[in-house]
């Protein structure tokens, strides 16, 4: 599934890109555990004014992010408190951070959700198509980075039937070039 520390660094970088690309003042997210039924844990925050969201364990189908995980597609609400199509298990921490408009975008690698990126405003305003498109692009870039990280050991590992280090290096570069 990739090296955990590297995945966390990629998540942190994606959240900074999310804020820059969307203009949203708050971004946060987490990685999904590798086993079936695992919860997403919010572990990185950017632009948050409190730690209220840190450590939240998001269950599949719960809240906006859980809905995004189940559907494997972006979800957004213009007013989190008033949204009727999501469950409200996380209202307390979301209110403590002062968030109102929220979007959640899954990071999909190989048809599997690996992370969810959130962006938010502290006012109940609709999030337009440009904002959603930018968030989706950031999630797609993170998914590609995780896929490359997952494949890296296979690509740089020993190549069967090669002579020495020089031949192995040439074979690896040839595989990458293809």
Automatic annotation (TrEMBL):
<dbReference type="Pfam" id="PF01590">
    <property type="entry name" value="GAF"/>
</dbReference>
<feature type="domain" description="GAF">
    <location>
        <begin position="35"/>
        <end position="146"/>
    </location>
</feature>
<protein>
    <submittedName>
        <fullName>Helix-turn-helix transcriptional regulator</fullName>
    </submittedName>
</protein>
<dbReference type="InterPro" id="IPR029016">
    <property type="entry name" value="GAF-like_dom_sf"/>
</dbReference>
<dbReference type="InterPro" id="IPR003018">
    <property type="entry name" value="GAF"/>
</dbReference>
């Amino acid at each position: 599934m990739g090296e955990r520390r590297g995945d966390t660094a990629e998540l942190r970088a994606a959240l900074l890109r999310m804020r820059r690309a969307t203009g949203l003042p708050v971004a946060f997210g987490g990685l999904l555990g590798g086993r079936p039924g695992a919860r997403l844990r919010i572990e990185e925050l950017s632009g948050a004014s409190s730690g209220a969201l840190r450590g939240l364990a998001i269950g599949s189908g719960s809240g906006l992010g859980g809905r995004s995980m189940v559907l494997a597609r972006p979800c957004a609400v213009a007013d989190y408190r008033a949204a009727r199509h999501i469950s409200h298990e996380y209202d307390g921490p979301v209110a403590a951070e002062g968030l109102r408009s929220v979007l959640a975008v899954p990071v999909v690698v190989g048809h599997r959700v690996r992370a969810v990126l959130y962006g938010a405003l502290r006012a109940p305003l609709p999030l337009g198509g440009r904002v959603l498109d930018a968030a989706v692009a950031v999630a797609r870039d993170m998914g590609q980075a995780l896929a490359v990280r997952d494949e890296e050991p296979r690509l740089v590992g020993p190549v069967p039937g090669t002579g020495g280090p020089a031949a192995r290096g040439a074979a690896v570069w040839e595989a990458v070039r293809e």
